[in-house]
Each structure stands twice: as C-alpha cells, then as structure tokens.
Amino acid sequence: MAEKKIKWGILSTGWIAHKFATALQVAANSELYAVGSRTIGMANKFAGEFHIPKAYGSYEELLNDSAVDVVYIGTPHNLHLENTLLALDHQKHVLCEKPMGVNRTEEMCMIEKAKEKNLFLMEALWSRFLPNIIKTKELIDSGEIGNVKLLTAFFSMISDNGPEHRHYNIDLCGGTILDTGIYNIFLSLLLLGKPKSISAIAGLSEQGGDNSCSYTFKYEKDTLAVMFSSFLADPAVVAEIHGTKGKIILDHFWFCPGKVKLTYRDGREKIFEFDFKSNGYEYEAEETAKCILAGKTQSDSWSWNDSIQLVSTMDAIRKQCGIVYPKHDL
Ligand SMILES: NC(=O)c1ccc[n+]([C@@H]2O[C@H](COP(=O)([O-])OP(=O)(O)OC[C@H]3O[C@@H](n4cnc5c(N)ncnc54)[C@H](OP(=O)(O)O)[C@@H]3O)[C@@H](O)[C@H]2O)c1
Questions:
Q1: pLDDT-derived band of residue 280, with 50, 70 and 90 as boundaries?
Q2: 232-266 residue pLDDT tens
Q3: N or C: which end of the chain has fewer CB within 10 A?
Q4: 145 lines ligand 1 (CB under 6 A)
C-alpha cells in the first residue's frame, strides 16, 4: 500500500528553513509541496533548490493554497505568534520553530486557537525527538545512573552579528535565553522536571537583551542543574548528567544528532551510537506527520504543557534578570 503523505508548506526561507527542507526530503509520510516567502524571488530560489512544486511571494498566498496540510514556521521569534495564528485561521496544522511564543501569554493564545480550530500545533523543539536525547531520558528514567545530583548544560557561540540582527535586536526578542539557552532549560525540564527554585543572572546588552546568561535550578534536596548560554564566548557545547551510580556525557553540540556516553562509578563504559537519515530535523517532521495522520492535535512527546512549562521557566529567568521585550511583554 502507498505510504500516506501530508503536504508541507514552508513559511520563510532563512537558515533554519533550509535545514528543515533538507530533512523533509527523507522524512516519512511527508511531501515538501510549497514554500512562501515575503518576496517571490526568495521563494523561487528556495523552491528551485529543493524541487518544490509551488512557490509563493507572500505568506498569505501560501496559506490560501488548499492543498497545503501543515505549515512549518521558521521566522524570527517575534513573529511566531502572528504567523501561527494566521496559519491556524487558514485551517493549517502548524509546526512552529522554538520558542513557540516569546512568553507564556503568547503561547496560551496559540494553544487556544489550535483548540478552537481542532488543528495540530507543536513547537519545533527538534532535540526532543533525537535518538540520543530519547536514549538519555530512558537511561535516567530507568535509574541507570542512580539519583541525579548534578546536570550541567552549556550552549554558547560567538555571534558577530550587529545590533539589528535577531540575536541582539530587542524588538525581535533578541538574547541567548530564547535562542540557545532554551535548549539547556529544555534538557533540565525533560530529565529532572520542574525545579523547586531558579537563580539567574545575566550580562545585558545596551538594548537590554542578554548577551550572556547563567541559570541554576534547584531540585529536591541537593540536586542542581547548572546552565549557561552566551553570544560572546564559545566554550564547548556539552551536557553532563551525574548520578549516584554513574554519569552520562553528551559531547560537543549535545543538542544535535550525536552519541551518548555512559560511565559507571566503577569505570565501565557504554557508548550508544545511532544512524541518522539526514540532519536530525526529520524526527520532528515525522512526529508531526504521524500525529496529523492519527488525528491528534498535540504530540505526547512534546505537548502543549511541555511548551508552556518551558516558556514559563524562561519568563521566570527573564524576570530575575530584568529582561523585557518592549513590544511583547505588555
Ligand atoms: N531548531 C533549530 O535548530 C533552530 C536553529 C536556528 C534557528 N531556529 C529558530 O528559527 C527561527 C529563525 O531563525 P533563523 O536563524 O533561520 O533566522 P533567519 O535566517 O534570519 O531567517 C528568518 C526568515 O524569516 C523570514 N522573515 C519574516 N520577517 C522577517 C523579518 N522582519 N526579519 C527577518 N526575517 C524575516 C525571512 O524569510 P522570507 O524572507 O523568506 O520571508 C527570513 O529568511 C528563530 O525563531 C530561531 O529560534 C531554530
């Protein structure tokens, strides 16, 4: 029997849209059918690169194509709310880049709309669906390293972009927390759950966004998660989880496709390696297609509640650091 496929429309043609389109070439139950850009020139260029049948010079035109089942949104953070609501209003299922909304209020608004329209909505938190992250969670949940006492997760890079770029531009909700820090926070929430308390401190830019931020979560008794993100330095992007019986190390670019190294206290070691079909974004695409074909409005693996918990934690960190997005935190 022929594989059931959903038709994807990609909304925007930037860096991440390229990665996602690459992955869609191999994703199960998926057909890359259309792309929409603010300009027809960019849409045509993108369509040519990925052999996409339909190219549109506006987001509305893409959404007016009744053959599009689901839209992938890869615009800057500040536009996720507007673009998602527009897509849902056009009866499209949505996979929206992280952060789904820039604060809890925005995300609640998106979720309410998805509920009202009975459509699928998920934050594109791609790492959640990678086999190395799934394996890490299985190992922690099954008690393989005992009780977790310390999690460390870092995601920094030097961003040479100017103040107008979305990394720094406060009107575009710039700063590390929503861009790279979100992955550290996600890992801690996924593996250890909701913290008892949070302690955060940031180095702010002149615009008021965070150029660097550190955040420590305290869990039951003496368990800590210590995390850091920066646009000004590039220490190794690694994560470690230390338990009473052993530790798990996720190497450089820990949030990407990779391997899992488990070391017991007695020195025994196990390495878990995985085959990846593409660049890793295929897993979130396949989860989306699977859920839509099953008639679901949210994923069990990365649910609306998961997104809300993540953004609420980022809201709390921003509050402690005095970071306000002037056009969004009204
Ligand atoms: N999951 C991941 O691994 C990952 C990695 C990087 C980024 N991201 C997320 O993806 C989103 C986009 O990041 P990116 O690095 O791909 O950004 P980017 O390269 O700047 O691309 C953003 C695209 O959004 C569209 N856009 C619409 N209005 C815009 C505006 N006012 N200014 C700039 N672009 C506008 C543009 O496409 P058109 O001109 O075609 O309309 C642009 O190419 C962010 O929310 C980020 O957090 C996720």
A1: very high
A2: 999 999 999 999 999 999 999 999 999 999 999 99
A3: N
A4: no
Mutation to probe ligand 1, out of 10, 11, 12, 84 (largest number of atoms < 8 A from CB): 12
Whole-number CA gyration radius for the chain? 20
pLDDT bin (cut points 50, 70, 90) of residue 220 is: confident
Bridge partners, 93 (sequence order): 70
Token code pair at residue 136: 């890490």
Task: Please indicate whether residue 167, judged by its CB atom, sits closer than 6 Å to ligand 1.
Answer: no
Class for the domain spanning 131-279 = alpha beta
CA-proximal residue: ligand 1, atom 15 (nearest): 15
For ligand 1, the distance from its centroid to the CA atom of residue 48, given in whole angstroms, is 19
CA 81 – CA 109 distance, rounded (Å)? 8
Amino acid at 174: G
Q: Any idea where the domains of the chain sit in the sequence?
A: 6-127, 131-279
